[in-house]
Amino acid sequence: MNAPIHPLSQFRFCPKCGSPHFVEHNAKSKHCEACGFTYYFNPSAATVALIENPRGEWLCVRRAKEPAKGTLDLPGGFSDMFETSEQGVVREVKEETGLDVDRVEFLFSIPNQYEYSGFLVHTIDMFYRCHVSRFEHAHADDDAGEILWLRPEDINPADFGLLSIRRGIERLLQQV
């Protein structure tokens, strides 16, 4: 049986001093033998929005970009530096749908792996119920190629291209 590849195997040089003596320290970190710096590989924060309209339909988007281009998704994305996860989900909803979120409510989180530009990014996907008052200006933009309003009973988790979103949809559908 092959040993798993260390998550930091693509990082050959110490990010602090540039030394090539940057070695595996344990399952989640590498250590620089030159300067003593230890880098821990922690997940990136990502957000997912569940938005329901007054008819009880959920806002889904069709992914405009890889990974999983053309599959269904929920609005969301990576949190930026210096913003809270709640600010991140509000910003992502605005960027992808044009909608203004009035209030967010944390639901649950799911660990995930997301391939970006050939690099596997470990994430913690935080799901939020996002309350929106006005829906008339909804439109697809940024990473969203299309907006769809779907009744929960018409949603098939297999139509969602990202594993964590499928798992989240399954969990949300169990609560309906």
Give an overview of the whole structure.
With 176 residues, the chain is mostly beta strands. It has two domains: 9-41, no CATH class; 44-174, Nucleoside Triphosphate Pyrophosphohydrolase (Alpha-Beta Complex), CATH 3.90.79.10. The chain contains two helices and ten strands; from the N terminus they run βββββββαβββα. It has helices at residues 85-97, 163-174, and strands at 22-26, 29-32, 38-40, 44-50, 58-63, 72-73, 76-78, 101-116, 119-132, 144-150. The strands form three sheets. Strands 7-4-9-8 form a four-stranded mixed sheet, with helices on both faces. A three-stranded antiparallel sheet has the order 1-2-3, with no helix packed on it. The mean pLDDT is 93.
